[in-house]
Amino acid sequence: MLGMTAMLSVVLFALPASAAWNDTYQGYATYTSSGYSGGAVLLDPIPANMEITALNPTQMNYGGVKAALAGAYLEVTGPKGKTVVYVTDLYPGAPSGALDLSPNAFAKIGNVSDGKINISWKVVKAPITGNFSYRIKEGSSQWWAAIQVRNHKYPVMKLEVQKNGSWLNLQKMDYNHFLGEQLGNQPLKVRITDIRGISVTDTIPALPSSGGSDAYIVPGKVQFPD
């Protein structure tokens, strides 16, 4: 009996403390006109009429992964109703649950004259079509590269590259790119994992031989399932 109790204690202790990816969060919203260019997670260009938000650091770095919710879509509920917004920036210093919405999004769910409203929100499947695309950051080469995944149905938590028969996990950075070194000059077989733990594989064309190139976009061939 004592052994069973001890085993149960170990199992309970091992359970993750973080919230589920699709939990509903409570917080407040403010609004700002920034976030359409030069946002912390480098998702430019963003259409000027798109409903967007900056996200507090707690949820932005969900599960201990930097920029985990960059490019996510959130369904936000306020005093006047609901809307869906795209995460394009960080809301520095804000508490858990807080969003800094674009004015057009704020106006749909609250009175702009209030300036700050109580909200709830959750991550939802992105209202997008097509496959991933990949942004290869300026200066990338076979020696050093930063790769960003765009147009994903669910937030991207992990990107791995197949190298010498094994999967190499690339670190996600605050600026929403996965950082790799010595990736070589051959096409890259990659495995991308979303916030639900679902993985898909794809191939990215070979990186530049030297680091003098500008940033560029590569179309992908896959997408996360619903």
SSE blueprint:
Layout: H1 2-14, E1 25-31, E2 52-55, H2 57-60, E3 73-78, E4 81-90, E5 99-101, H3 103-109, E6 117-124, E7 133-136, E8 144-150, E9 156-163, E10 166-172, E11 178-181, E12 188-194, E13 199-204, E14 216-219
What's the alpha carbon Rg, rounded to whole Å?
Answer: 19 Å
Give the helices and strands as they follow along the chain.
HEEHEEEHEEEEEEEEE
Average pLDDT, rounded to a whole number, is 92
Distance separating the two termini: 44 Å
- Shape annotation: elongated
Number of strands: 14
Output the strand order for the largest sheet.
13-12-9-10-11-8-7-14
Instruction: State the helical fraction.
Output: 10-25%
What class would the helix/strand composition place it in?
mainly beta
Low-confidence segments, ≥5 residues, pLDDT <50? Answer: 1-17
Largest sheet: 8 strands, antiparallel
What can you see in these coordinates?
The chain has helices spanning 2-14, 57-60, 103-109, and strands at residues 25-31, 52-55, 73-78, 81-90, 99-101, 117-124, 133-136, 144-150, 156-163, 166-172, 178-181, 188-194, 199-204, 216-219. With 226 residues, the protein is mostly beta strands. The strands form two sheets. Strands 13-12-9-10-11-8-7-14 form an eight-stranded antiparallel β-sheet, with no helix packed on it. It has a six-stranded mixed barrel with strand order 1-5-2-4-3-6. The longest helix is centred in the first third of the chain and has 13 residues, at 2-14. The protein is elongated and about 55 Å long. Mean pLDDT is 92; it is low at 1-17.
